[in-house]
């Protein structure tokens, strides 16, 4: 029997909001199957790679979109720029902002655009970047699509970068086309990816009026989709899975870590290299004594903490290479690094990328199906998608 199965991926939807502000989705979760999912330490790039591959970061090796690789950096031409010029440009945010915007227009790395972000010019040539930003660009997505096609199941993706607006209208039109063509023999799995709430939460804050208004819109839209699919929560109906990758924490304080380390007598580009993201800071140090000094300075900061060897194994980021750094330092919810290398002029009002134990880093899984084995971790999403083709 031909089936149409729908996966609704709602980026950054906190599971707590479902039961307080989304009556239609709450009813769906309560009467069907619902579970909060454990997560990985990292941002969407790491979580999506884990979801699509069914493996942890230390297995799939796609933890962060940037990594230490001077040999392959698309910006290695900066090695030939005089140090006086790069140091001068690093003194203000405007030149880095300009280069970041210019790099959006330049095709590099096999036709992909590699954005310079807000990385200081003096160290930019040390980093390379994975070009696969969105789910459908991931090599794991393509592998999953091939796996499903061998079982006469078509995987259709709807979402950014192509569908940033009218996403649900496009989806409903595609759905009507699928229902209209009754002669098709293959099953169809829709993967619908909505990242609007993530944008609102970063820009305005997870508790903002903008984010709250989108929750109302989203719940009404889901209610319409449920009705079109004729979902009956007390008997067999269309197969629908709704899930998220994380929530958000409201930012209440920022940490200028480079300024702090400078006051400790540690010089960027001389004593250490680093990549400062929103909630994670990665460090590379060649000298053993300097490594000890850096670790002592970070421990004195007493805001976040160094991810030690035990935690690396626990969080499955115990890499056997230095691509992602010698030291990982993470902040607690409510804090973020600013300035950072991600390129915003002002601090974000909401962030994620904290340790997996915190509620704001939890994901969720909900379906109208009664599962005998309920997913418990974001990596289990892949086996759910692949299993529906059997």
Number of DSSP E strands: 18
Report the structural category. Answer: alpha/beta
Shape field: elongated
Helical percentage: 25-40%
Describe the structure.
There is one protein chain. This protein is α/β, with parallel strands linked by helices and 390 residues long. The chain folds into three domains: 4-56 and 133-250 and 356-387, Alkaline Phosphatase, subunit A (3-Layer(aba) Sandwich), CATH 3.40.720; 66-129, no CATH class; 252-347, Gyrase A, domain 2. 36% of the residues lie in helices and 18% in strands. The protein is built from 15 helices and 18 strands. The strands form six sheets. The protein has a six-stranded mixed β-sheet. The protein is elongated and about 65 Å long. The model is unreliable at 232-236 (pLDDT under 50).
